[in-house]
Amino acid sequence: MTETRTAPLTDTSVMPVIHTLFRRELRLAAGLLRGVPEGDTARAAVVADHLGLVGEVLHHHHTAEDELLWPKLLERVPDDLAPIVHLMESQHGRVEALLDEIGPLMAGWRRTAGGAERDRMAQLYDELYLALAEHLDAEETRLLPIAARAVTQEEWEHMGQVARAGTPKGAELLVLGGLLYDSGPEGAAKLMHGAPPPVRWLVPRLGARAYRRHAQKVYGTPTP
């Protein structure tokens, strides 16, 4: 088994910034669903599109880790740390199983705004939030310190590039604004690291504006 690297440490601090989007939007998801009147297909479409975007971003985020991070860690970490990586894999499996169950329900509910489908999905989103929050907490406290020693900065940044490539076309600024909403200037600096100064100044502002408009439509307030 290859020993983990001792120096330099890879900077993994952007990951908790990314996680803020998933924590916030999935914490609020069940309430959004329960607030849609039965038969209101126009409102159902707004909520379904929003939750679909969040789910797609989460799926690509997890797929990048599944394909590019967990295998490297299992090759490189000592045997006594491997169970932490396997825990991450199993938690991803639970999240994906819930998303897979939600998918067909969401497609039908978007067309009909049926009460039974709405209520079942709200229950599933409650379960999804709890499962994901447990996973993100474990990843941040137990896994990131291992990753910082076991993968290179180049490998880490490549994983991020692959995850971002899965963002639906046209939604890039909106997703960035969602990432920035709870992260403040420090989070913005991490997300925009390496970009030219004009881009670091302008793009976060455009993203914040895109998210405010989106939140007003989805939540009825620019500050959900």
Structure description:
With 224 residues, the protein is mostly helical. The protein has two domains: 14-167, Four Helix Bundle (Hemerythrin (Met), subunit A); 169-224, no CATH class. Helices cover 79% and strands 0% of the residues. Helix 1 (14-34) crosses helix 7, helix 2 packs antiparallel against helix 6 (153-165) and helix 4 (82-112) runs antiparallel to helix 5 (115-150). The protein is globular and about 60 Å long. It comes from Nocardioides marmoribigeumensis.
| CATH third-tier fold name of the largest domain | Four Helix Bundle (Hemerythrin (Met), subunit A)
Counting helices, strands and paired strands, the structural category is mainly alpha
What count of structural domains?
A: 2
Q: Which descriptor suits the 3D outline?
A: globular
Beta content comes to: under 5%
Count helical runs: 9
Count of distinct strands: 0
Considering the protein shown, what is the CATH homologous superfamily of the largest domain? nmb1532 protein domain like
